[in-house]
Amino acid sequence: MSAARVGIALVFPELLGTYGDGGNATVLSQRLRWRGIDAEVVRVGIGDALPASCDVYVLGGGEDSPQTLAAARLAEQGIERAVGQGAVVLAVCAGLQLLGVSFTGADGSPQPGLGLVDVTTTPRGQRQIGELVVEPTAFDLPMLTGFENHGGITTLGPGVQSLGRVVAGYGNGIGGVEGVVHEKVVGTYLHGPVLARNPALADVILQWVTGPLEPLDDAVVERLRSDRLRAALGRRAR
Amino acid sequence: MGRGSGSVIGARVTLALAPDALEHLAAGWRVATISGTNGKSTTTAMLAAACSAAGSRVASNVEGANLRSGIVGLLTSDAARRADLAVLEIDELALPSLLPSFEQPVVALLNLSRDQLDRFGEVRMVASGWRAALQRQPATVVANADDPLVVWGALGATDVTFVGAGLYWHDDAAACPNCGRVISRDGRRWWCTCGLARPDAMEIADAQLLALDGTPLAELHPAVPGRHNVANAAIAVVAAMKLGVPAGVAATGVAAVESVAGRYQTIKAGETNARLLLAKNPAGWAELLALIEGDTGPVLLAINARIADGRDPSWLWDVRFEQLAGRRVIASGERVADLAVRLHYAGVDFDLCTDDVLDCLKSFDQPNIDVLANYTVFADLVRDIARQR
């Protein structure tokens, strides 16, 4: 199938945009435009109605109390209806946590998540900050690189698939795995933004919407990837 | 290394021997502090100039050694022995631990936004630290009414004068710092259902600083460019007034500040005149891009991600580099690969220069260029320029 115009919702950037993850929407839309496919980024502010008909919903990382606020608004606005109709979701860090069954709010109490994926996040007591390298297992892709900055332990429910295996860093902080993939919902702790550093993952997400896409010249990204993988892995990267 | 660094090392020794050295050193001093994410150094220089214009002998850490060791180093320096007023730039995270050393300080609070997230963590926690410290201790506070985080932090104190200094970066001010609900806005007014709201403030209109009743107090004509520096000048003038300086005298002193630690100065590199502009975080970059919007000349961008910059340059995606499309752009710095990807997706054509920035400038083939750099790459450039002289 081929969409006439691909709609990409950037969800609550003023709450879930603390770590530059809005760049994921920029990457998705540019990679479509470079292939001659019309794309529109819809910036959904906290006071706006969540559009029901976007193809992709992008959620990023944020602070604890904005995260709780974002989860409550998304529950009111029914993001699960869009997901039920086949929309793609990319959720990073706080965005990943609030898609789950529960997470921990600013006051330390458990907060209900949206329940779109069967994961539960509890506080680790200490932030994990640094380069994160993941060998993807959910998709046949090159190594994923990013930067993590969070204090959560995200436990996957029985039978729930992770995005990949942690090679360097902490990821979910349990089981040596990182992120979550459930149908067309991808959750991860990778900032960078993740799709800027990992264009192959961006194309997986886009092809769920558009069908097969021609490859792009990603030479400028390859240089960044090799820099970052070398920084995180040292000699292991070669 | 400059003398400033030497005095910091000496101060670290002092602090190791006497952890309460600052409390003893600061006793009896009149102190003004300046904190916030952006504009600390410039506002500190402006306040020092305002007080000097009124005849004060000012000791100030204008070079930016803004942690405990830097303050101890300043107060034990020769310059401090002759001074009667300390004007102190203080790291926003360090402010709560340093304030108790000062007696009834004047505390200027500028703005708070995302910066070095790997070091500071959540920006609301910084405001929370200010609020708790000001609840414990008498202080005369001058604070930006347009930044909800700053207002909430400042209201820990009872003696607060607010200034409508503006806020052009709203992405860290959507949720109420007091209760977590959404902040409502109408023009410059903002409020939350919990009661936190934009307070009555001294305002800036047409480069005039106005008192609460609309009376003109002073004209603000800072020599350093940009709307953010008009805001810094307003805070500096009001803080100077709290120290007893007449508004007009303060404004004259503020207007004389031309360059702070290399910022905004134009240097000659080879055949090129390069104007040096520093921005450390998305809010700062937004101000610089507003400053150069509409210009057509070449731009060199330089990005590092050392500890003092924050080790994650993901914030590059919060900066509207798209604005630079069509201009000649040179990308440099230790994280040029990250910058290159950002520019690629912004639709900005660029050349790479992987040499030190000064060498990039020396080999540049046009008469003028604006250099926009973040913290450590800027500091290295200023150091390299000084060495060459």
Total number of strands of chain A: 12
How far is the first residue's CA from the last residue's CA of chain B? 15 Å
Assembly classification: heterodimer
Question: How would you characterize the largest beta sheet of chain B?
Answer: 6 strands, parallel
Molecular shape of chain A = globular
User: How confident overall, as mean pLDDT of chain B?
Assistant: 92
Could you say which overall geometry of chain B the principal axes of the C-alpha atoms support?
Answer: globular
Rg of chain B (C-alpha, Å): 21 Å
Give, in spatial order, the strands making up the sheet with the most strands of chain B. 2-3-1-4-5-6
Strand sequence of the main sheet of chain A, in spatial order?
2-1-3-4-12-11
Distance between the termini of chain A: 39 Å
- Percent in helix of chain B: 25-40%
For the biggest sheet of chain A, the summary is: 6 strands, mixed
How much of the sequence lies in strands of chain A comes to 25-35%
Q: Give the beta-strand count of chain B.
A: 17
What report would you give on this structure?
The complex is a heterodimer of chains A (238) and B (389). By secondary structure, chain A is an alpha/beta fold. Helices cover 29% and strands 31% of the residues of chain A. Chain A is built from seven helices and twelve strands. In chain A, the strands form three sheets. In chain A, strands 2-1-3-4-12-11 form a six-stranded mixed beta sheet. Chain A has a four-stranded antiparallel beta sheet with strand order 8-7-9-10. Chain A is globular, with a radius of gyration of 17 Å. Chain B is α/β, with parallel strands linked by helices. In chain B, the strands form four sheets. In chain B, strands 2-3-1-4-5-6 form a six-stranded parallel beta sheet, sandwiched between helices. In chain B, a hairpin with a 2-residue loop joins strand 12 and strand 13. Chain B is globular and about 55 Å long. Chains A and B meet through helix 1, helix 2, strand 7 and helix 7 of A and helix 13 of B.
